[in-house]
Amino acid sequence: MPTITIKNYRWIIVTLLFFATTINYVDRQIIGLLKPVLEVEFNWTETDFAHIVMAFTAAYAIGLLLLGRLIDKIGTRLGYVFIICLWSVAGMLHAIAGNALHFCLARFGLGFGEAGNFPAGVKAISEWFPKKERALATGIFNSGTSIGVVLALIIVPLILRKYSWHEVFWITGAIGFIWLIFWLLFYDIPSKQKRLSSDEFNYILNGKESLTKQEVISSQVKIRWYKLFTFPQTWALIAGKGLIDPIFWFFLFWLPSYFSSTYEIDLKKPSLELIIIYAATTIGSILGGYFSSLLIIKGWPVMKARKTALFIFAVMELSIILAQYTTAAWMAVGIISLAVAVHQAWSTNVFTMASDMFPTEAVSSVVGIGGMAGAVGGILFPILVGYLLDSYKAAGNLTGGYNLLFTICGSTYLTAWTIIHILTRKHAVVQLNDLK
Questions:
Q1: DSSP state of 195
Q2: Per-residue pLDDT tens over the stretch 372-409
Q3: What angle do CA 262, 267, 270 make, to 5 degrees?
């Protein structure tokens, strides 16, 4: 019996990637939401929590570097099987942690496994989408980051009502295995996917400017990984991720504590304020991708469209500096919501630049390198965060520490954009033969 083809099958792929990213961020965010509970039970300081965050980000950096290359070798299908099993098991192991060191070890395992999500996801987008649709597709799957955080805000208090923090980790960690069933049922590369119509396959193929049909079908070219570091395009991605990713991780891990300490929000109940903030990132992710895609559809050169979008987002991000002048929780919600939404718009376009500038066979590797830079920044930035917050707390002015951090965050995007612009002025696409 012949297999029935499904119209617009590429959007099913995006849906799978969206849910994988959602689960990824549910598992990632739980430690931040449980921080007020765990720091009482285990008597953590802000510096202790910073060390736990650093364990995650250190593993994330290592994982991005190693798993990006691994996924380019074994393919997206098997790559996702490996990484989601790894991070789901590590997520559940948090439940048996008995001190800060145990949490550091569990976070290390979680960070290593979760590191593969974006290299694998961006690679899948480059396999399944023409360039003019990639930013929108990336924006949709990247929006899972915010949906995951929002779901965590809802799920964690509901579980805590009947159970302890241990069950939070057991239950959320197991969700990844449910997703894995659907992944194995529905995913394969376009040339092997029998549910894909010939019209859609040709549409995808014709939008891959840098590849021939034979290269798309075979994908057997051996990439010399070290050569990626010889291209300014790689260093542009390193700048775009290395300077900016730590800022979102700060928003991710410390915002719940900020609202708890500054505006006395009870994190044992679903927080409407935090739900609104993290939901705003969904809008930013999708609209940010749509904006640059729209410019390309209107005839703009690909890199000009991406960099114009990034410049606009960098200017808009200065608004987070105004958070220090807020006097009420909802004023802070409005300003921070805009900031995190703009960040996701930025992130979507930086991810998409990887598939704009590099052939599909190298996308996971280069995304891994850029992500590693972001994770290294994520290791270093919490040291500053922990030091500043502990110092200001000792002086009786914890809010002042957060205000200084908001100023640092807001001014970094324009610096990153300037570096990206300088490194990509010629913006030539790296050819497959250049990487042999």
A1: T
A2: 888 788 778 877 887 888 888 788 777 778 888 888 88
A3: 120
Q: Check residue 264 and give left, alpha or beta (phi > 0: left; psi -120 to 50: alpha).
A: left
Q: Could you tell me the fold of the domain covering 9-428?
A: Growth Hormone; Chain: A; (1.20.1250)
- The secondary element (H helix, E strand) that includes residue 117 is helix 117-128
Domain boundaries defined on the chain: 9-428
Question: 405-426 in b/e burial notation, b at 16+ Cβ within 10 A?
Answer: bbbbbbebbeebbebbbebbee
Q: 163 CB contacts (<8 Å, ≥6 apart)? A: none
Owner of token pair 């990336």: 138
Answer yes or no: pTM beyond 0.90.
no
Render pLDDT for 135-168 as a digit per residue (tens, 0 to 9). 788 888 888 887 888 888 888 888 888 888 888 9
How far apart CA 338 and CA 311 sit, in angstroms, is 16
Q: Which helix (H) or strand (E) holds 258?
A: helix 245-263
Say if CB 146 and CB 278 are below 8 A apart: yes
DSSP line for 280-348: HHHHHHHHHHHHHHHHHHTT--HHHHHHHHHHHHHHHGGGGGGGGG--SHHHHHHHHHHHHHHHHHHHH
Beta carbons of 86 and 404 less than 8 angstroms apart: no
Cα separation, 374 vs 160, in Å, equals 32
Give the whole-angstrom CA distance, residue 319 versus residue 28: 27
